[in-house]
């Protein structure tokens, strides 16, 4: 074996000699508790230099006995001698799925290439996660008496999932039972928890609110929605659209509305919130709309040891609720390959994720927010449901890059936002302030735009649109 292949990592530990056998056992336990499998080498320095050992059958037997005596629960590693750059070393390959593991009576966790002793709280969390993995909430049997299931919702779902309701049985009662079995919601004669989320008449809740500042001091609007999981996903989207600014772009001769925050990214975040939340927690999924951001919050932090950094890399799918995720996949609301996070990052690359007090939060910045806005900092609430029209500054019309096109876009913006300031226009329209001033003077000179009132308290009054020739 080439020595360049050996490097310490989260799953590989290197020890120079068997004098470090105790430390080696600690590393094995730390790796098992983090990753479930790994390798331990003796006769190799931490920098990867093979120094070699005098290895006999008794040496290998002594190592095996030390592992059996000092690691709990029991593991059965593969131990052999390996030649590394003409030096004889010991390789131990190990795996186990019965975490937490203990070495000499203590539990450890691998962090980079180091071993850190677990606290009592961390150890408790591993045990809780282990029990959750063995019996997940979404597949647990519903408490009896079972809630009433709405036949219409089940029929609608079956159709969306590509199943033929009429071929499932001779009557609706038999078809209902077969549909639940096919969807894995009826297991061993027991109805699963996931069935209540999608089809029960007993609703679940979504909590939404709009705040007048960048914190939760001033509440402008608050609304709790009741419904099944699919209905609440739609309600969350509608609530956000109702309470953020809608921009526009021109495609040919048509105007296309463009929300200031990507709805593709928001929709994926909302679905993820319901799909991956901790349903044992009685709290609700929340949508919080602030002056400067939109947040989607769900009970439960990242699952299975996944970190925020690993999650942002994408293509990582750790499922707390695999049955719920599969029900979403059947109707093409999620993919089966962990594409949710890449879709969010593709459409909202500046999204921020954080975990606070047992909540996972996805935060999307609102481009309409202006730092220093008096309403944001003095606690003066804006109009609750005012929708102003801004523009992306990029269109597919033939006049996009021309002075006429930019002036027309500016005029359209002021038609919907007459009190907009020059710095705001420059930011929203992706122009310099000098450029904004140039077009304002041109529009005023041609009689297309008027200014009424003072400089600080006045507003703009657009008269009419320009045609493609730059005339009224």
Q: Mean pLDDT, rounded to whole units? A: 84
Query: Biggest sheet, strands in spatial order?
Result: 12-11-15-16-18-17
CATH class of the largest domain: Alpha Beta
Beta-sheet strand percentage? 15-25%
Report what the structure shows.
The protein is 34% helix and 23% strand. The protein has 472 residues and is of the alpha+beta class. The strands form 6 sheets. It has a 6-stranded mixed sheet with strand order 12-11-15-16-18-17, with helices on one face. The protein starts with 11 loop residues before the first strand and ends in a 10-residue tail after the last strand. Residues 374-402 and 465-472 have low confidence and may be disordered.
Describe how the helices and strands are arranged.
Blueprint: E1 12-15, H1 21-35, E2 37-42, H2 57-70, E3 71-72, E4 78-84, E5 87-95, E6 102-103, E7 106-111, E8 114-117, H3 120-134, H4 151-160, H5 172-182, E9 186-187, E10 190-191, H6 193-199, E11 204-211, E12 219-227, H7 229-242, E13 246-251, E14 254-259, H8 263-276, E15 285-289, E16 293-299, H9 308-312, H10 322-330, H11 340-347, E17 352-356, E18 359-365, H12 374-378, E19 389-391, H13 403-416, H14 422-428, H15 433-445, E20 449-452, E21 459-462
């Amino acid at each position: 074996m080439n020595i360049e292949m050996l490097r310490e990592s989260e799953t590989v530990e290197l020890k120079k000699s068997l004098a470090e056998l105790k430390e080696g056992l600690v590393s094995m336990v730390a790796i098992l508790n983090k990753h479930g499998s790994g390798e331990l080498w003796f006769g190799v320095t931490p920098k990867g230099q093979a120094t070699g050992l005098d290895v006999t059958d008794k040496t290998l037997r002594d190592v095996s006995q030390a592992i059996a005596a000092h690691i709990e629960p029991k593991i059965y590693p593969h131990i052999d001698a390996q030649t590394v750059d003409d030096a004889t070393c010991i390789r131990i390959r190990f795996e186990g799925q019965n975490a937490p593991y203990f070495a000499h009576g203590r539990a450890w966790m691998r962090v980079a290439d180091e071993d850190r002793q677990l606290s009592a709280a961390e150890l408790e969390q591993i045990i809780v996660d282990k029990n959750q993995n063995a019996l997940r909430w979404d597949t647990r049997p519903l408490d009896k008496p079972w809630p009433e299931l709405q036949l219409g919702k089940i029929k609608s779902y079956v159709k969306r999932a590509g199943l033929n309701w009429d071929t499932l049985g001779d009557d609706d009662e038999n078809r209902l039972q077969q549909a639940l079995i096919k969807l894995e919601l009826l297991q061993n004669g027991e109805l699963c928890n996931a069935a209540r989320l999608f089809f029960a008449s007993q609703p679940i809740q979504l909590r939404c609110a709009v705040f007048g500042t960048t914190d939760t001091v001033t509440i402008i609007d608050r609304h709790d929605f009741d419904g099944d999981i699919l209905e609440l996903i739609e309600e969350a989207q509608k609530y956000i659209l109702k309470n953020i600014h809608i921009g526009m772009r021109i495609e040919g001769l048509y105007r296309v509305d463009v929300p200031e925050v990507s709805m593709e990214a928001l929709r994926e975040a909302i679905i993820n919130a319901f799909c991956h939340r901790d349903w044992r927690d009685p709290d609700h999924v929340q949508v919080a709309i602030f002056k400067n951001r939109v947040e989607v919050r769900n009970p439960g932090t990242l699952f299975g040891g996944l970190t925020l950094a690993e999650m942002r890399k994408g293509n990582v799918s750790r499922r707390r609720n695999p049955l719920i995720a599969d029900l979403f996949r059947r109707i093409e609301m999620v993919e089966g390959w962990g594409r949710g996070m890449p879709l969010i990052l593709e459409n909202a690359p500046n999204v921020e994720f954080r975990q606070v007090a047992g909540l996972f939060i996805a935060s999307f910045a609102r481009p309409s927010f202006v730092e220093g806005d008096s309403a944001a900092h003095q606690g003066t609430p804006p109009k609750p449901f005012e929708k102003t029209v801004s523009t992306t500054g990029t269109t597919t019309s033939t006049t996009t890059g021309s002075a006429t096109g930019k002036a027309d876009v500016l005029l359209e913006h002021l038609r919907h936002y007459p009190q907009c300031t020059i710095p705001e226009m420059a930011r929203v329209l992706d122009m310099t302030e000098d450029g904004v001033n140039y077009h304002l003077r041109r529009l005023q000179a041609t009689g297309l735009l008027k200014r009424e009132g003072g400089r600080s308290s006045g507003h703009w009054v657009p008269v009419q649109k320009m045609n493609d020739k730059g005339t009224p």
